[in-house]
Write a structure and sequence with these properties.
heterotrimer, A alpha/beta, B alpha+beta, C alpha+beta, A: alpha/beta, Rossmann fold, Ubiquitin-like (UB roll), de novo design (two linked rop proteins), four-stranded parallel β-sheet, four-stranded mixed β-sheet, 18 helices, 44% helix, B: alpha+beta, 7 helices, 4 strands
Chain lengths: 415, 160, 500
């Protein structure tokens, strides 16, 4: 297999087109899967690769595919989660811009493995212009026979529809995404039933993140062992790490799972600007609890981050340098979740707004330790009690900020 | 006063509806098409969409009011989104918003008196390595500086 | 027919066995444990949003919803550990932080879940000192319903009821996060015959009825079960009334008719017709015996019945079949119909017995039947052929007994007047004043079904006994007592009678 398929993300968007993709080996894995593998074998290979979901939850993709019942009549669907909304994350944007065919090929292989004839790509509304390229790539793929009623000349048929969101972070949550796709408010559903059994239009549905699917051609093309070997035993492959904030070279870095966080920040992203030092790092998107400078020597994989009391999530790394008041960070965080709460369940709807009201008052007219205790306690009333993970995504980072930077915050609000 | 999309929009709407196994699923794409034409979704359009997609009009209102990108009232000819999430705040988003207020005299949510630009403060646009990020009529701009924002505003105003 | 599989589980140490597919909340009910909840309703699909019913399930790390967790064999559930009680207090504190202190002016006070749960599970001082969201408080949404958006806890029971039960979907939830609010689309208010259920199911005072607003207090109401007499469905209802304080001594008023659950008849709901029916329990009632339409002061019904008996006795035996006509109705209970049969058919040998009633209306796909009388099946069961009244038959009667005001539904006023003018002795037994009153020799005030006890058999043959739901008006007498008394004066023995 040509070497360039080893890199998921090209360095620029000059080679996004079909011709360039095919010439570097693209769609060979899809051909291999559809013409010489059984669907169950494809699933097994992806399981062996330990490809964990790259949207944030980290659920093993092969396992998820295996949950879909095969002996049912009626349609099945694949939903691609391109609702990239986790603050600090911009890797799916670049996949759509630079490697849309890798995504399409991954969709073809996944749909073949699970027996799915129709896929919807849920693209966040703010990526509408970016989606034009994706839709052009889909048209290219269809014209070349990689999509349509007889993919690559086989009996397998697949159509892909690009569907645009309209500005709601919550639609990144898989059941809220389904609700939105069905033309409703993006509010999460009670689980069980799980989407694999009752999903889009009540049919069995697989929902995968863009990066997760874009990695599938590599797994089939180069083998599960190759993919797994690039990462860790429980967490295979490479990840696209988004780095932003106070660093010299913000951008997306394709690195093995398990790369140390400090290395990503200081070696690849160039560390903080001249004369500034790292004060705090958000390691996995805003929903991942903040880490202090002394906590940065840890491998970036799901288990290590979880052990450290944070999460790998969407691997969106935001570096905060000294000189940035943590009260500002707390305000931005509280405001985000209060604005993005869908409003369905009590603790999130009321708790996130209450926390924001307290923090706004603290910024406006100050306060005391009791107010900070209140924020922590309110977050505690949200944590573990909500219908969907947005509750924890709000509560855990807020608690971490107040707990880890307590004395700075007390000083900041004292009047 | 009854509403009808333009023939071109209607063609796109019909093509879109055909992509979904249930008509109701086309609510968001159809609203995007209508907003693309009128700049916002008028109330009469809500009834039209409800009728065409065989859903109660209250369903359309629910969707319209839930998603921040849909506008129910006419705004400026151009929309200028300014991200104020973490990476952009760290990179100076507040200063950019302040500069916009100095230059245009409007705060987030407001439209310039000449009807050219409506400014919105938004959450993460997914472009954090170009912080501070703006999005003008769907096109990303960043890293924004006072100078680049001034130029962007001129460009938008000139496009009247 | 195979029965549903049974599942055994433990709730708060109590062993309980329920049908497969039951949720933990309902299973706890079976075990005598009430798990607090707002959004769950057995007649609606699971929403899982209020988060009040969180419980501990052994083996699971997080608290789980009792409403959406289906029972499994051997499940061990704990509903009142420290963790669970803290979770409930937190939900209550969140709700109350954004809830107006309206209790002194809110109709729901005394029957409000927020109040009740606060008493049971809260009682903590609220820590919210920030400004609460201010919202519209008196928004008409149709059918006399008023929405108070400040009180609303967004349980979405109202929205779900209109989507899932009536399938009319007039209500929706607009906006998002804390700005979320319930509303209608302009020009499309709530407009269906089941709108009153929204007040019943709202757990707080967010949806109230203009009909009930500010009129009384929940704790003054006496609530008694009854059966709705307004159509052939016979929905189970609760009649809610006050007698005496805070009204005047002796005064009685029915404030509300609400739904009562009956899986075999009406499920969880009743229609607005039944609710509106509360008015006729109090309004337009005949309050004393009338003679030719004028109050016969001091004349008791027992004494007046002597005249009726005398009229009947004045017709020689062999002539009775031809010259005595009786009009009955299907609001009579099955017991009263049996008495009427024994008195008029077996005892007096009459056969000119007909049944007048409310004109049939439109049936709907939910509860309302076309027939608008509650005991048509009871009439058949009592052995009466359900003959409608015939003017020719009535006009040749020498003595006519009419039970109920329904002749006016069958015949034009002028024709009826002419016919009755030709009948020498005509006696009317009715609960409400009407155009027939002045045409009758004597008019007797009878009880409304809510003031009686007895049995109705509904359109599907379901037999529903009911007891007296409101204290009867002083003058009102049940038809059963009239049959008894008449029989006595005629020297007839009606045998066993269990009418009170």
């Amino acid at each position: 297999m040509p070497e360039s398929m080893d890199r998921l993300l090209p360095v620029d968007d000059a080679s996004w087109g079909l011709e360039a993709y095919v010439s570097r080996g693209g769609y060979a894995a899809a051909r291999q899967a559809l013409t010489s593998m059984a669907p169950a074998d494809v699933i097994a290979e992806v399981c062996r690769a330990v490809l964990r979901g790259r949207g944030g939850a980290g659920f093993p993709a092969g396992t998820k595919w295996g949950f879909v019942p095969q002996n049912v009549s009626g349609p099945k669907y694949l939903c691609v989660n391109a609702d990239e909304g986790e603050p600090g994350t911009f890797k799916d944007r670049l996949i759509l811009l630079r490697a849309p065919h890798a995504l399409i090929e991954g969709i073809v292989i996944a749909a073949f493995a699970v027996g799915i004839p129709k896929a919807f790509i849920y693209v966040r509304g703010e990526y509408a212009l970016i989606s034009e390229r994706l839709e052009a790539a889909i048209a290219e793929a269809r014209a070349a026979g990689y999509l349509g009623p007889r993919v690559l000349g086989t009996d397998f048929g697949l159509e892909i529809v690009a569907h645009h969101g309209a500005g709601a972070y919550i639609c990144g949550e898989e059941t809220a995404l389904l609700e939105s796709l069905e033309g409703r408010r993006g509010q999460p559903r009670v689980k069980p039933p799980f989407p694999a059994v009752v999903g889009l239009f009540r049919s069995p549905t697989v929902i995968n993140n863009v990066e997760t699917l874009a990695a599938v051609p590599q797994i089939i093309g180069r083998g599960a062992g190759w993919f797994l070997g690039r990462g860790l035993a429980k967490d295979g492959g490479t990840r696209l790490f988004s780095v932003s904030g106070a660093v010299r070279r913000p951008g997306v870095y394709e690195l093995p799972v398990g790369t140390p966080l400090r290395e990503i920040i200081e070696v690849h992203a160039g560390g903080p600007p001249e004369g500034r030092r790292i004060k705090a790092v958000v390691p996995g998107g805003l929903s991942a609890p903040v880490l202090k400078p002394e906590e940065l020597d840890l491998p970036m994989d799901f288990d290590s981050l979880a052990k450290a009391g944070s999460m790998l999530g969407s691997a969106g790394i935001i570096v905060i340098a000294d000189g940035t008041p943590i009260l500002d960070v707390l305000h931005v965080t509280a405001r985000f979740y209060a604005h993005e709460s869908c409003g369905k369940c009590t603790p999130c709807r009321i708790g996130t707004a209450w926390i924001l009201k307290v923090v706004e008052r603290l910024r406006r007219s100050g306060g005391g330790p009791a107010d900070l205790d209140l924020v922590v306690r309110l977050a505690g009333g949200i944590k573990g009690r909500t219908l969907c993970p947005l509750g924890d995504a709000a509560a855990l980072p807020i608690q971490a900020l107040v707990t880890k930077f307590r004395s700075e915050l007390e000083q900041a609000v004292a009047r | 006063m009854s509403y009808a999309p333009s023939p071109a929009a209607l063609r796109r709407i019909e093509a879109t509806i055909a992509l979904y196994p249930e008509k109701g699923a086309a609510i968001l794409p159809v609203l995007h098409i209508i907003q693309g034409e009128s700049g916002f979704v008028p109330e009469e359009a809500e009834s039209w969409v409800a009728g065409r997609l065989a859903v109660p009009p209250v369903r359309v209102r629910e969707v319209l009011s839930f998603y921040t990108m849909f506008k129910r009232a006419p705004g400026g000819r151009h929309s200028l989104l300014v991200c104020r999430n973490l990476s952009c705040t760290l990179a100076g988003a507040e200063d950019i918003l302040g500069f916009i207020f100095e230059t245009l005299g409007v705060r987030p949510g407001e439209t310039t008196p000449d009807g050219a630009i409506t400014v919105f403060a938004v959450e993460c646009l997914g472009n954090c390595d170009h912080a501070p990020c703006l999005q003008a009529d769907g096109a990303d701009h960043g890293p924004a500086t006072r100078a680049s924002v001034a130029a962007l505003i001129e460009e938008l105003r000139a496009d009247a | 027919m195979t029965e549903a599989k049974r599942v055994r589980l433990t709730i708060d140490g109590r062993a309980v066995e329920v049908a497969e597919g039951t949720n933990v909340l309902k299973a706890a009910e079976a075990a005598g444990v009430a798990i607090p909840h707002f959004c769950y309703h057995p007649g609606l699909e699971i929403e899982g949003s209020c988060r009040m019913c969180l419980v501990e399930i052994e083996g699971l790390p997080k608290l789980e919803l009792a409403c959406s967790t289906v029972v499994r064999e051997g499940l061990v559930v704990r509903t009142s550990t420290e963790r669970v009680r803290t979770a409930r207090k937190d939900v209550l504190e969140f709700l109350l932080a954004e809830h107006p202190l309206d209790c002194p002016i809110c109709d729901k006070a005394g029957e409000c879940r927020l109040q009740d749960y606060y008493d049971l599970h809260g009682l903590t001082a609220g820590r919210m000192i920030e400004a609460r969201e201010r919202r519209e408080k008196k928004r008409p949404i149709g059918r006399g319903l008023i929405l108070d958006r400040e009180r609303c806890v967004l349980c979405t029971r109202c929205v779900r009821f209109l989507r899932q039960v009536t399938r009319t979907g007039e209500l929706g939830v607009f906006e998002r996060s804390l700005r979320s609010e319930v509303g209608t689309f302009e020009g499309r208010p709530v407009d269906n015959d089941y709108s009153g259920n929204l007040v019943d199911i709202c757990p707080v005072g967010a949806i109230t009825s203009e009909d009930f607003r500010f009129k009384t207090r929940a704790w003054f109401l006496t609530r008694k079960p009854s059966v709705c007499p307004h159509c052939g469905r016979g929905c189970a209802v609760v009649v809610e009334s006050v007698k005496g304080y805070p009204l005047a001594a002796g005064e009685r008023r029915v404030y509300r008719v609400t739904a009562r659950e009956n899986a075999a008849v009406n499920g969880h709901w009743i229609c607005d017709l039944g609710r509106e029916g509360r008015r006729e329990i109090d309004e337009g009632r005949l309050t004393g015996v009338l003679r030719a339409g004028a109050p016969a002061k001091g004349l008791s019904w027992r004494t007046a019945l002597a005249e009726v008996a005398a009229s009947i006795r004045s017709v020689p035996g062999p002539d009775r079949t031809a010259r005595i006509a009786v009009v009955l109705n299907a609001r009579l209970t099955s017991e009263e119909l049996a008495q009427a049969k024994r008195l008029f058919v077996d005892g007096l040998g009459l056969d000119r017995i007909s049944f007048a009633g409310r004109k049939p209306g439109r049936a709907d796909s939910l509860l309302l039947t076309a027939e608008r009388m509650p005991n048509d099946r009871g009439v058949l069961e009592a052995g009466f052929p359900p003959r409608p009244p015939a003017l020719a038959e009535l006009s040749t009667a020498g003595v006519l007994l009419v039970f109920g005001p329904y002749l006016a539904e069958h015949f034009e006023a002028e024709a009826l007047q002419n016919v009755l003018a030709a009948v020498p002795a005509k006696f009317l037994f009715t609960a409400h004043s009407g155009p027939l009153d002045r045409l009758a020799t004597l008019a007797f005030p009878v009880a409304h079904p809510a003031e009686k006890s007895g049995t109705y058999v509904n359109i599907e043959g379901v037999r529903q006994p009911f007891g007296r739901a409101v204290a009867p008006l002083p003058s009102a007498v049940a038809e059963g007592a009239i049959f008894d008394c008449l029989a006595g004066r005629l020297g007839l023995n009606l045998g066993e009678s269990d009418v009170r």
